[in-house]
Amino acid sequence: MTIAGLVEESRGEDAGRMRLVVVAASLGTVFEWYDFFLYGSLAVFFSALFFPPGNETAAFLASLATFGAGFAVRPLGALVFGALGDRIGRKRSFLITMVIMGLATLIVGLLPTYEQVGLWAPILLVTSRLAQGLAVGGEYGGAATYVAEHAPAVSRGYATSWLQTTATIGFLMSLVVILACRVTLGDDAFRMWGWRLPFLTSIVLLLVSLYIRLKLEESPIFERMKSQGRISRAPIKDSFADRNNLKRVLITLFGITTGMTVIWYTSQFYALFFMQAVLQVDYKTSYAIFAIGLTVGMPLIVIFGALSDRIGRKPVMVAGMLLGAVTLVPAFHALADFTNPGLVAFSRQNPITIAGDGCTFSLFAKPVSDCDRARNFFSRNGLSYVSVPGTGVVTTVGDTQLIGFDEATYKKALDEAGFRAVPAAINLAGAVAVVVWLSALIGMVYGPMAAFLVEMFPASIRTTSLSLPYHLGVGILGGFLPFAASALVIYQGNIFAGLWYPVSIALATAVVGLIFLPETKDRTID
């Protein structure tokens, strides 16, 4: 064989090895995100199954808080498994996290309900969620580092952006599996026992992902550090006791990960919740809209990752945060206009005012006063209202005035005013276009991120250093986004009020990023 032939064969082998690295790392991460998103997608069922009955709003908020608890422990998982990745290897670390995640998810599918075991049900559920959060906290840093340390420098953003698609793929898979189960079993059977199937069948994904990952070799950069005696013996201390590296951690946290997090969760997770719970769109239609929109928009993550190899990570990511801050509110208004125009028209033609005393803001307590019950009634029906001081409770719906609170009277008043909660006409193309735009925002902030994080930190403490700021942003600000946004809606009485949480954080992060975020695309990572 000629020298040219050998070179070409070598290139082919390198390309094949790189594809295996990306596929193996991505499959494992897809599996973990799929498991994690199952809970969030089924939160409306879990609120009735695992929490005390009597107050639907409080139970639903408790289920969202439990979802957030799984995110809250992710920084701890980042420290534990990030340090393992820097000490024993990237491959071993993300094999451990995947097994923990799979077992915790399987257990969720086997849990008894509140009706069966009382308070043990939420306790066991929260424990499983914490185990899932710990595992996910360690997974991302190991997988991102592993892929980046195999990738050619000139295409690092492109290679790692495939890993970034895994969260969307996992989310999409969870929607498809849930939809298939609900359609096949019917709503009653799914509510009773069918919700367990998506969790139980994840064992198949675990075994496949584990088999593929076991075929991988360790990162060449880690092996080189190991042979040269450059492995950090105390990666947590070396990461955060060093002032220069701590500065890099803080810049990463406040200059990109917080903004990325709120845009990602708002554009996918909260948008789906908003469509179903607020705009009253049925699950089949909402899942179909998101399935199509995410499928069309997902390649944008790779496109923006590849673009960052040409023009830099910083301009692409900062542009995404700024555009997110400017367009999230209009995008959700457009989503409302496209998916439930009747609800939007009713709200505009019939402004609602609640004047009274005895109004309190309590997230978990059952509404007792007439004022609280009136506010809870309109929130459940996806209707905005304005609260003003008054004596007793006087509610105005358009030109109709209601004294006190009686749910039957309120429903009759809404019916007579022409209120219809269920959408009569949906502009599917318009709704899908909004989801695609939201996916574009995700692509800009998320596509280049893995490459940026890896390039930001030294190889010997890389997984520890990048995992903590990533999961502080994703875990704390992102995990509690559905809860915080829902609480803002209840507090303000405006169905769009929850968006000010992600908008303000995205804008603040963009400003910090513009000032302090360095450009990293030309840095060496060995």
In short:
With 526 residues, this protein is mainly alpha-helical.
Strand order of the largest sheet: 2-1-3-4
Globally, the shape reads globular
Separation of termini? 33 Å
Q: How many β strands by DSSP?
A: 4
Q: Determine the mean pLDDT.
A: 84
CATH architecture field of the largest domain: Up-down Bundle
Q: Class of the largest domain, according to the CATH hierarchy?
A: Mainly Alpha
Give the full name of the CATH homologous superfamily of the largest domain: MFS general substrate transporter like domains
Strand content: under 5%
Oligomer description: single chain
Q: Give the fraction of residues assigned to helices.
A: over 70%
What are its keywords?
Growth Hormone, Chain: A, 4 strands, mainly alpha, 25 helices, Glutaredoxin, disordered N terminus, globular, about 525 residues, four-stranded mixed beta sheet, 2 domains
Would you mind describing this structure in some detail?
The chain is mainly α. The chain folds into two domains: 3-228 and 242-340 and 424-516, MFS general substrate transporter like domains (Growth Hormone, Chain: A), CATH 1.20.1250; 349-416, Glutaredoxin (3-Layer(aba) Sandwich). Helices cover 75% and strands 3% of the residues. Helix 4 (74-88) packs across helix 7 (120-150) and helix 17 (313-339) packs antiparallel against helix 21. The relative contact order is 0.15.
Indicate the topology:
Elements: H1 3-41, H2 43-50, H3 56-72, H4 74-88, H5 90-108, H6 114-117, H7 120-150, H8 156-185, H9 187-194, H10 196-200, H11 202-214, H12 220-227, H13 235-240, H14 243-278, H15 283-297, H16 299-311, H17 313-339, H18 341-349, E1 352-356, H19 370-380, E2 386-388, E3 393-397, E4 400-403, H20 407-416, H21 428-446, H22 449-456, H23 462-478, H24 481-492, H25 500-516
Parallel strand pairs: 1-2
Antiparallel strand pairs: 1-3, 3-4
